UniProtKB/TrEMBL annotation:
Gene3D superfamilies: Classic Zinc Finger (3.30.160.60)
A Pfam family assignment: zf-H2C2_2
Keywords: Metal-binding, Nucleus, Repeat, Zinc, Zinc-finger
The name this protein goes by in its record: Zinc finger protein 32
Species assigned in the record: Labeo rohita
Stored SMART domains: ZnF_C2H2
Residue ranges of coiled coil: none
Length: 151
């Protein structure tokens, strides 16, 4: 019922993250304590969540339960299949709110957005090559123009 009310009564005292479910809160706390109660019976590697152990077990079993409907390639995790499908379909569901550039992976979009907010037009000489190139893409200016203007 908490999902409908938005109530999150379980709050981590170490990082402030809140949870609506005691089980999720306990799983989160294992990140801070380092507890890893789920152990692989074949190699002894331990995990803090049972789902991580299940994914790990596919290494030993060779199981690839998630199959691409277009090409037949199989994967150990649904998320990897989804990423594969976005590449095949050229879907780019993650969009920069500032410039409208789209990405097929959330992480790449986050990097792009961080780059957008970190580049200063007043001191581009100190920016990394990647940031400089990124600024050029949006402004159409050349590297030399920025170096001449930076002071």
């Amino acid at each position: 019922m908490r999902i409908h009310t938005g109530e999150s009564p379980f709050t981590c005292q170490q990082c402030g993250k809140s949870f609506d479910n005691l089980g999720n809160f306990k799983a989160h706390m294992r990140i801070h304590t380092g507890e890893k109660p789920y152990t692989c019976p074949q190699c002894g590697k331990s995990f803090n969540q049972d789902g991580n152990l299940k994914v790990h077990m596919t290494i030993h079993t060779g199981e690839n339960p998630f199959t691409c409907q277009q090409c037949g390639k199989s994967f150990t995790q649904k998320g990897i299949l989804n990423k594969h499908n976005r590449i095949q379909t050229r879907e780019k569901p993650y969009t920069c709110p500032q410039f409208g550039k789209s990405f097929d992976q959330c992480g790449n979009c986050k990097i792009h957005i961080k780059t957008c907010t970190e580049v200063s037009p007043f001191n581009v000489e100190k920016a990394s090559t990647v940031k400089l190139y990124h600024k050029q893409v949006h402004t159409g200016a050349s590297t030399f123009t920025f170096q001449q203007c930076a002071n």
